[in-house]
Amino acid sequence: MTGSVGHAGLVGHPGVLAASTIAAPHIEYSQLAPMLIVFAAALAGVLVEAFAPRSARRSLHIVLALGGLGAAFILTILIAASSSIFAGGGAGHIAAMGAVGVDRPTLFIQGTILVLAMLTMLIIADTAHGLSPFVAQAAAVPGSAEEREGLLKGVTHTEIYPLTMFAVGGMLLFPAANDLLTMFVALEVLSLPLYLLCGLARRRRLLSQEAAMKYFLLGSFSSAFFLFGIAMLYGFAGSVRLSAIASAASTNTANETLLLAGVALLGLGLLFKIGAVPFQGWKPDVYQGAPTPITALMASCVVVSAFGALLRVFYVAFGTLTWDWRPVLWVIAILTMLLGAVIAITQTDVKRLLAYSSITHAGYILTAVVASSALGLSSSLFYLATYGFSTVGAFALITLVRDPSGEALHLSRWAGLGKRSPLVAATFAFFLLAFAGIPLTSGFTGKFAVFQAAEASGATPLVIIGVLASAIAAFFYVRIIVLMFFSDPVPDGPAVVVPSALTGTAVAIGAAATLFLGIIPGPLLSLANNAATHLFVR
Amino acid sequence: MTNLAAGAVSAADPTLASFSPLVWWIIAIKVVVIFLFLLLFQILMIWAERRVIGRMQNRPGPNRWGPFGLLQPVADALKLPLKEDIVPRQVDKLLFFLAPILSAVPALISFAIIPVGPEVSIFGVHTPLQLTDFPVAVLLVLAMSSIAVYGIVLAGWSSTGPYSLLGGLRSSAQVISYEIAMGLSFVAVFLYAGTLSTTGIVNAQAHGWYVWELLPSFLIYVLTMVGETNRLPFDLPEGEGELVGGYNTEFSSMRFVLFYLAEYVNMLTVSALATTLFLGGWRAPWPLSLWSGANSGWYPIIWFLIKVALFEFGFIWLRGSLPRVRYDQLMALGWKILIPVSIIWLLLIATVRAWRYDTHSTAVYVVGGVVLAIIIVIAVSWDIAAERRASRAAGAESAAQEAGPEPGTPAAAPRGGRVTYRVPPLDLPHYHGVGVTDPSRPVPPPAGAAVGAGDSNGTKEVTGA
Amino acid sequence: MNSYVPILVLALLAVGFAVFSVVLGTLTGPKRWNRAKLQAYESGIEPTPQPPGGGRFPVKYYLTAMLFILFDIEIVFLYPWAVTFQKLGAFGLVEMVTFVVTVLIAYAYVWRRGGLEWD
Question: Do B340 and C6 lie within an 8 Å CB cutoff?
Fold first, then answer.
C-alpha cells in the first residue's frame, strides 16, 4: 500500500512531479502602500478615461492624481516615522520577498519624488488662458485638417494624467528596487509613459514628435544595455539580488570580466537616464521638444529617481568594487560638469539651456556619488531635493512667457523682460542664481554639501573642476539676467500671462523652497543626514 | 495494487515517466504511423466533407471514382502535382517557397503530443499510444499554431498581390485574435488538472470529463477552434466572394496542396486537442466505461477516433449550414465576447475552487452560480442599452445626413472622428434585371435552382443525378 | 530533454515531406509560358502596381497585433499560475485577480476608445 501511494499520487496529480516545494510568497502590502496607491490612482485614471464623460474627465483626473500623490506622500511619512525606521533607529526592511527595499534613503527619495510630482501635476493640469500645453489629437498629422478640427473643438488628451501617474509609480519603484529585474521593470514603467508624453506638445508638433522618437530609440538602447548588464551580472553571481551580487563580487574572483562588463553595461543604462556625458545626447533635444510641464517632470522627478537607483546599485551591489568604478565615474563626472557648462554658453533656446544646465548639475551630484560614503549619500539626497524644487519652479515660469504661437523660448525674445514684467523676470533670475550656486539660494547649500562630501573622500581635483564649471555656468546664467534687465525690450515682445492658481502655486512653492533652503538648510540637511546614516538595506 | 487516490485511474495508465527511456524503433514506428495517419485521414476527410455537404445540399457529391466515390480525393491528389507550378514574376522567391512549408510543418508536428490510447505492448515493449509527452505539452500545440501564422502572413506578403496581402493580414489577425480566447479557455483545464501534460490531463479526467465541469470553456474552445482553422463560418481569409483565395491566391500545384493539407490537418489537431482536454481523451464514454476492458489495450483508439470524428463532422455541418460572417462581426465575436467571457469565467471558477479548498463546503457553487447569473444579467442589460443608444445615435445621424453635407463628401460622425462614406444605393435598376435584356445571354436561373453551386473547393465535380 | 527527441524526428519527416512536395510540384508540372500567368491574379483586371515591400495596409492590423501581444503575455502568466494554483492558495488567487483586473481595465479603455471596432 505505502509503496503504491507515491505512484498513485503521481498518476492522480502529475503536477506534483514538478514542484512540491512552492510556498506562497509573502508581500508586505503596508510597506509598499505608497507605490500601490500611485499605481491604483493611475489605473483609476484609465477607468475615468474609459467611462467618464469628456467634460468631467479633467477635474476627476486632477482630484485622483493629486489625491493619490498626496495620500502616497502621507503614507511615506507614516512608514518613515514608524518605529522600525527613522523613529526607532532602524535601517529599514526588505519587502516583497526581497524585491523591494523600504529603507531610509529610499523613503527620502520617494518623498522628494512625490512632492515634486505634485508640483509638476499642478503645471500639467493648468489649462488657464485656453492653452493647455498638450496636443488635441496626438495621432493627427501635424498641419492636417484633423488636427485643426481637434484644436477648434477644444479637446485635449486627458490620458496625460494616468500616464504621468504610471511614470511616477515607476519612479517610486526604481530607486526602491532591490533586485535588478524589479529595477528593470520599474525603469520601463517609468520610461514608456514618458516617451509618449514627450510627443504630446501642442505647439511645434514635429519637434515634439522628433523628441519622442529620439527619446524612445535612445531610451530603448539604454534599456537594452541595462538588460544585457543584468544578464552579465546574473551570469557572474547567479542571482539578480543586489546583495547577492555584492557578496559574490567580494568572494568570487574567477569571472571578473563578466562582473566588470556587467557593471559597465548597467552603469551605462543608469547614466543614460540621468544624462551624464557621454550619454547626454538626448537631453537637449528631448527637453526642448517635450511639453514644458513634462520637461519639468523629467528634469526633477526622473533625475531624482534615476540618481536614487544609481546610488543604490553602486553603493549596494558594487559597494565592494569601489576601486574599479571610481576612476570611471571620476572621468564621467568631470566631463559632465565641463561639457554641460561649456556647451550651455552657446545655447539660444531657454529650454535647451536648462537642459544643458541639468547635465551640469548631474555632474555635480556625481561628485558626491564618487565619494561612496554616508556623507556622499546624504549630500546627493539634499542636492536632489533642492535642485528639484528650483527646476520645477523655473520650468513653470517658462510656461508663462508667451508669444502668439506659444511659449517664447528663444532667448532674444526674453530681452528686456525685466522692464516689462519685473516680478516674473526677478523670480526667474532668482532661480538662475540658484542654479549658479549663489549664496542665500538652495543651490549654494546643495553645491556646498556635495563638494564637501567629495573633498572628504579625497576627490579634491573633482571639487576644483566643479568650482571651475560652476564659474563657467554662472557666466551664462548671469548673461540671461543681464539680458532680461539691462537690454531694451524687443518690440512686440512676448506677453507674460497672469499665472493661474495652479502654475502660480508651483512657482511660489518652488521659489519659496529655493529661498528657504538657501537660508535655513538645517532641517532638510539633517533629515538627509539622518536618511543616509545606515546607507541602503541589503 | 490498491489505488485509492486515483479512483478509476488504473495503474497501467501512462504517466510522464512512461516516455523514458526512449526506444528508437518504437519512436520510428510511432512517427511513421502518425505521419501516415495524418495524411491518409485527410483523404478520408475530404471525401467525407464533399459527400456530407452534397447530402445536405440535396445532391450526391462525388460518386464516380471508386466505391461511393472514395477514390475521388486520391484522384485529386494525383492531379494537383501534374498542374503547372506558377511562380508570378513579382513574388519574393524565397518566402514564396518557404510559406507553404511553414504552414504545413507546424500542423504536422502538433499531433505528437495527442494521447491516442493507454499503454499497450508493441512487440513486447510497453509504451503509451502517444508519440511523446512532457510537462508543458499543450504549449507545443499553441507554439505550433503561432508559427503557422507566419506561414499565412508570409504567403500573403510574399505574393505581392492585393488579394493575397489582404487575405494574409485578415487571416493572421483572425488567428491571433482567436488564439487569445483559445489560450484562456485552456487555463480552466490546467487549473483543474494541475498540469500541462496531455497524459496528466487525460488521467485527471478519469472521474468525469471536463466538458461537463467546464462547459463554458469547452464552448469557447469549440468556437475558437473553428476560427483558428479558418473554416466556415469564419473563413474570411479565403472568402472567395471578395478575396478569391485569400493568402493562397497565387499558389498553385503542390504549394497549394500544402496549404490545403495544413488546413485539414489543423482541423484534425484541434479536434484531437478538444477530445484530449475536454472529452476525456481516449477514455470510453459512460455506458462503455462500465466494462473494465474498455479503457485498456487497443480499444481506446476507437473511442478516441469516434470523438474526433464527431468534431470533424461538426466542422462539415457548420460549413453546410452557416453563411460566412462579416469581418467586423468576426472580430467583435473574438474580442468583445469570447475574451471577456472567458476571463470572467476563469476568475469565477478560480475563486470557487480556492474557496472550496479552504472550506470544503458546496455552498460555494451556489454563490458562484449566483455571481455568474448576476454577471450575465449585467452584461445582457448593458448590451441592450448599448444597442438602444447605438440605434438612437444612428437615427440622429441619418437625420443629420439627410439635412447635412452635399453628396460625395464624407460625413463626419459625432464620435471619435469616425467617417462614414456614401455608398451607391443597393437598388440600382440592373440589380433587378432591368437593362440586361441581352438576348445572347441566358436568363439567370431563379434562386431556388442554385443548389449544387456551393462546393467551394475549386475542383469540379461530376453531379451525376 | 529526451521527450523532445521524437518531436524532432517528426519535424524532420514533416520538413522533408513539405520540401519534397514543393520540389516535386516544380518538376512534374507542365511549363507553358504566358505573360498574363506571371502577373498577380486580380480576377482578370490589369494588376494594381505594387510598391516594393508590399505597400501600406490598414493600421488596424498593427493595433490588433499589439493587443494580441498584451493578452498573450497575460496568458503566459496564467499558465504557470493555473498549474501551481493549489499550492499558492488564496495568495495566488488574490494576486492573479489583481493582475487580471489590471489587464481588464486596459481592455475596457481600448474597447471604449473604439480600439476593437472594425469599420
Answer: no
